[in-house]
Amino acid sequence: MEKKIIHKLFPTPVFQFRIENYKNLNKELTKYIYNLREDDKDGIQRSNVDGWHSNNFKIEKDNIPYNFVKTIHGCVKEVIVDGFGWKYIPEKIGITEIWAIINKKNTFNQTHNHPNSYLSAAYYVKAPNKCGDIHFYDSNEVKKFIKPPTDNLTELSTTGFAIRPEEGSLLIFPSYMYHDVGKNLSDEDRIVISFNVDITIHKIK
Q1: What pTM was computed for the model?
Q2: What is the pLDDT of residue 143?
Q3: By C-alpha distance, which of 122, 174, 130 is closest to 16?
Q4: What is the DSSP string of 40-70?
Q5: What are the mean pLDDT values of the chain's consecutive 10-residue runs (205 residues total)?
Q6: Is 79 left (phi over 0), alpha (psi -120 to 50) or beta?
Q7: For residue 163, with 0-12 CB atoms within 10 Å meaning exposed, 13-18 middle and 19 or more buried, which class applies?
């Protein structure tokens, strides 16, 4: 048999990190997020279906969102520098939006992406069993319209991928990727923090 080389061109990555000492961090974030909901029970409507979506966090020096951003800053830098090889200029990189979503039982998030940013992320504060996987979809639209019958899905033929949420896990991915969240089938809340990263004139504090 002749030697074969497969060139896997233009991959779309999802980076997954495990945050150290996440249990203490998540306790603070849980309290902070529930207090936000108490003060703003309606929240806002985005991709959430019956779940609660906060307004953007107020990041002020040494408050809980500020400390969270400091904690995940190194992960964002690693994705930019080691992952994509983009030029890293701190004063031109910033988190432009950051919010929380609480999905109670039987709530979910519709398919969406995050326009006007380069990277987006999901950090799991509370993730009980069967609370809803996050599903990512192939950005190549043509593959959704026509494909032959498939006997065995491989990384070359699949058009979707699911990741089960784990507390303390941080996912960072290109903002153009369409994704959704499955229905929470547990009896507990699913809590996630999401944020967008832009590369402009803003600075990660």
Answers
A1: 0.94
A2: 78
A3: 122
A4: -SS-B-SSEESSEEPPPP---TTSHHHHHHH
A5: 89 96 97 98 97 97 97 98 95 95 98 97 98 95 83 90 98 98 98 95 51
A6: alpha
A7: middle
Contact assessment for residue 65 and residue 59, using Cβ atoms and an 8 Å cutoff:
yes
Question: How deeply is 128 buried, as exposed, middle or buried, from its count of CB atoms within 10 A (0-12, 13-18, 19+)?
Answer: middle
Is 114 within 8 Å of 177 (Cβ atoms)? no
Find the helix or strand (DSSP H, E) in which 25 lies.
helix 22-39
pLDDT given for residue 140 in this prediction? 86
Residue-level pLDDT at 142:
81
- Predicted pLDDT at 65: 98
Q: What is the CA radius of gyration of the chain?
A: 18
Contact 132, 103 (CB under 8 A): yes
Burial 57-96 (b: 16+ CB within 10 A, else e): bebeeeebbeebbebbeebbeebbeeeeeeeeeeeebbbe
What is the pLDDT, as a whole number, of residue 201? 55
DSSP assigned state of 76: H
